[in-house]
Amino acid sequence: MTAQASEARELAAVIGLEVHVQLETETKIFCGCSTDVADAEPNTHTCPVCLGLPGALPVVNEGAVEAAVKVGKAIDADIPEETTFHRKNYYYPDLPKNFQITQYDSPICQDGKLEFSVEGERRSVDIRRAHLEEDPGSIKHVREGSGPLESRTCSIERADYTLIDYNRAGTPLMEIVTEPDFRAPGEVRSFLEKLEEVLEYLGVFDATRDGSLRIDANLSMVDAGEVDDAGDIDESVLEDANRTEVKNISSHKGAEQALSFEASRQRKLIQSGRAVEQETRHFNETHGNTVSMRSKEEEKDYRYFREADLPPLRVSHWKDEVPIPELPDARRERFVTEYGLSEEAASKLTSTKQVADFFEDVAERFDANLAATWVADNLLGELNYRDMAITDIDDRFDEVTRLVELVAEDEITAKNAHETVLREMLDTGDDPDTVVDREGLGKTSGDEVQQAVVDAIDENPDAVEDYHNGEDGAINFLVGQVMQKTGGSADPGDVNGLLREELES
Amino acid sequence: MSDPAVDPEEVRHVADLARVDLADDEIERFTEQFVDILDAFEALDDVPETEREADLSNVMRPDETRESLSQEEALQNASDTEEGQFKGPKVS
């Protein structure tokens, strides 16, 4: 690539991902230690296997293999006849054995794909492979001093020593490697959201677990002209472009941020006639930038060789035997056909399994349209406004159901239910009946409304005259008067009807 | 074998990967020893193929929790510890 012609060059980003997800199993991948380490004291979930003590032998966890097969089915991958484990050798204190057991040339999932939508458009990304491996332990970098440990943990550069907790060591991980099919950081974010959604549907992944998702991304820039209409790029062009690998990304947002930074950094280099160095870079989430990382090891330095302690797995037939639940895409389509929902509403409602399950529960009890409005629009809207997630209220579904019931049975108006009761429920934590009582929102009884209608007509002869002269606005004024008298608890549609009846009689 | 199997540069590199600090005279000595060791392994080329045990496959265990070591047991071989954790030199 020459610098001279570069100024006006239009560039396109080429991005591929390695996504590490923790698989949700009871025990670690090669031993029976519990993976439930969230609030545990350090080094209380270890054994000779995950501490790498001499002579300890790993045995594969059937649950982890089953989870991997489920992932393979969900991404439409091949499960090869035989899959094996390898040792990846490197020396770092988070790895007690000085090697990581992983898969190398025969991963358990090969040639899959995942569809997702980005800004309303359907995209599909090819997944080259997905393999099983073990998570390393957790490291803390610490400065000497007399203060409490928390105050002395620091960056790697400033550290005097290292502390290691092996509770996490041996947690099953799946590394999912995509083809370089992404063309923009926003696509990566949408893909990750979809991937997480699918994994949650499968019940093999818990997004709330700390460190459950870690991403390495590689990015290079090519001439925009090299991208054909289908979005494909010639292999040789990709090989010629220098790429950087960005490590230490731990969220969807982080991925978009890191890659946006990296794309514009490379674009500036190329447009000013300089070369992009092929290197590993570290994403700094606090600063939103990437910095060069001295990378010591090349692939051959890992000296991969077969893990002789683990016989091969022959589990391709599990693909037919291990069931997986209905996945988000299928469910979305069913919501459209079965409940007559719009694509948009169906997408919102299938965004997480919890939301979809809750919607179906409400739809079954009341009415699909009412359920869709309440779950997709009102509930998700108010949660979003408060920066809350469905997981923040998943122990209060019965309260939300009760609120919908109050609306369905005409006990309160839809407007009050949404704008007062739901909001107060979320802000104060009170249940719907408490809010209704406190705010006096129980629908006014028929007699009271009737009286208010009569009063409004008596008190506003001018409006009545306007009405009889065919001025349509007059009825709205009278409805307003009645609503005021009933403190907003009457149903405006009913009031409109009652007024017309009274005025015409 | 035509090429020398191991040269000093390679020994230095492997020592780096293993985080082992070798002095120059040690590198020289190890280079010679590596060549000897690899030569010795060549004897395996002459071993005839024999019958062997049938290959195992699908050796797995159910996803059931087993008791872990206590923190004291886990740390008992550590040369240094702090607040229940293994303590080691800083890393780069």
From TrEMBL, chain A:
Its EC number is 6.3.5.-. This is Aspartyl/glutamyl-tRNA(Asn/Gln) amidotransferase subunit B. Heterotrimer of A, B and C subunits. The lineage of its organism: Archaea, Methanobacteriati, Methanobacteriota, Stenosarchaea group, Halobacteria. SUPFAM superfamilies: GatB/YqeY motif, Glutamine synthetase/guanido kinase. Residues 357-503 form the Asn/Gln amidotransferase domain. Keywords: ATP-binding, Ligase, Nucleotide-binding, Protein biosynthesis. SMART domains: GatB_Yqey. InterPro entries: Asn/Gln-tRNA_amidoTrfase_suB/E, Asn/Gln-tRNA_Trfase_suB/E_cat, Asn/Gln_amidotransferase, Asn/Gln_tRNA_amidoTrase-B-like, GatB, GatB_C_1, GatB_Yqey_C_2, Gln-tRNA_amidoTrfase_suB_CS. Allows the formation of correctly charged Asn-tRNA(Asn) or Gln-tRNA(Gln) through the transamidation of misacylated Asp-tRNA(Asn) or Glu-tRNA(Gln) in organisms which lack either or both of asparaginyl-tRNA or glutaminyl-tRNA synthetases. The reaction takes place in the presence of glutamine and ATP through an activated phospho-Asp-tRNA(Asn) or phospho-Glu-tRNA(Gln). Belongs to the GatB/GatE family. GatB subfamily. HAMAP family: GatB (MF_00121). The gene is gatB. It catalyses: L-aspartyl-tRNA(Asn) + L-glutamine + ATP + H2O = L-asparaginyl-tRNA(Asn) + L-glutamate + ADP + phosphate + 2 H(+); L-glutamyl-tRNA(Gln) + L-glutamine + ATP + H2O = L-glutaminyl-tRNA(Gln) + L-glutamate + ADP + phosphate + H(+). Gene3D superfamilies: 1.10.10.410, GatB domain, N-terminal subdomain. It holds the Pfam family GatB_N. It is an enzyme of class 6 (ligase).
From TrEMBL, chain B:
One of its GO terms (biological process) is translation. Keywords: ATP-binding, Ligase, Nucleotide-binding, Protein biosynthesis, Transferase. It holds the Pfam family GatC. It catalyses: L-glutamyl-tRNA(Gln) + L-glutamine + ATP + H2O = L-glutaminyl-tRNA(Gln) + L-glutamate + ADP + phosphate + H(+); L-aspartyl-tRNA(Asn) + L-glutamine + ATP + H2O = L-asparaginyl-tRNA(Asn) + L-glutamate + ADP + phosphate + 2 H(+). The keyword Iron-sulfur does not apply. InterPro entries: Asp/Glu-ADT_sf_sub_c, GatC. Transmembrane segments: none annotated. Its EC number is 6.3.5.-. Residues 49-69 have a biased composition (Basic and acidic residues). SUPFAM superfamilies: Glu-tRNAGln amidotransferase C subunit. Residues 47-92 are annotated as: Disordered. Belongs to the GatC family. Heterotrimer of A, B and C subunits. NCBIfam families: gatC. Allows the formation of correctly charged Asn-tRNA(Asn) or Gln-tRNA(Gln) through the transamidation of misacylated Asp-tRNA(Asn) or Glu-tRNA(Gln) in organisms which lack either or both of asparaginyl-tRNA or glutaminyl-tRNA synthetases. The reaction takes place in the presence of glutamine and ATP through an activated phospho-Asp-tRNA(Asn) or phospho-Glu-tRNA(Gln). This is Aspartyl/glutamyl-tRNA(Asn/Gln) amidotransferase subunit C. It comes from Haloarcula argentinensis.
